[in-house]
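Example record for the data management plan.
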Amino acid sequence: MRKRHFDRISAAVIALAVLALTPCIAFGQAIYGKDTPIDRAAKSWLEEKAKLPTFDPPKTPDGHPDMQGYWGGIGSGDDIEAHPYVDLTTPPQESFLSDPPDGKIPYQPWALAERNKYRAGLNRGWPGETGENLHVDPQLFCFTNVPRASYRGGFQIVQTPCYFVFLLDWGHFYRVIPTDGRPHSVASNVKMAMGESVGHWEGNTLVVDVTNLDGKLWLDSSGNFYSNTAHIVERWTMVSPSQIDYAVTIEDPRVYTRPWTINVAMNRARNADEIWEHACHEGEHDTKHTQEIGYKPWWGVVPPK
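Corresponding structural encoding:
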């Protein structure tokens, strides 16, 4: 009985930690009631985008679209597939996926079983959970990846003639993306959480090619993942003074049956002169605490040969 009571207290502590660290709306963590309307994502954005007039964005001195300023992602992002209300941090939401049309990640059978196993072991209230403490979202330990770094919170864009820079509110992370035509230069056996990003302009669209990902982080907090052979292409297009069309295609033939695409809007922050810090740091103690109540570290997947 005492152990069960401790487990409940510990689970509550973990829930509070997740509440502090999971994705946010408008740069702050929201609390959602069961009557919260469904959060808009790909379906609503595609409908809205189709009605927008043609937009000629302002240009920087070097002639490229000027996207500088403060922007924010959308929704909670706890599950990038469509889902109903789960808990006070996870409102109902449309799928982030525009392709496939059903909004489902096209996992290979083994990978879908693996994702479902992770979700069943979250022990935070998702349908179908077993009650086992298997894994928590690896982002809890203060790391992030691409593309989650883009849609999970707020960021500032800074541009120079040769670089496109993202300064993220979460965890002091940043991305410095060369846009001067250089190729990838990191050896293929070097893997990193955010990979190597190289950009180029196609008209008014910034295209970012991302390789060298280590595959040790999830796409959300409910177990969706890719492996260390994933290849990602992001497309950033300013379609109105206050909206960027963000489309990202993920390809990983060891995990998925075909490439798939997220397509959502990034919205300009209102009355923002700065990004408020969302502090998270390496070396914090959540790793120890989660292991004490039975959660195991997640080090990525090893696809079958």
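Summary line stored alongside the record: Residues 2-21 form the longest helix (20 residues).
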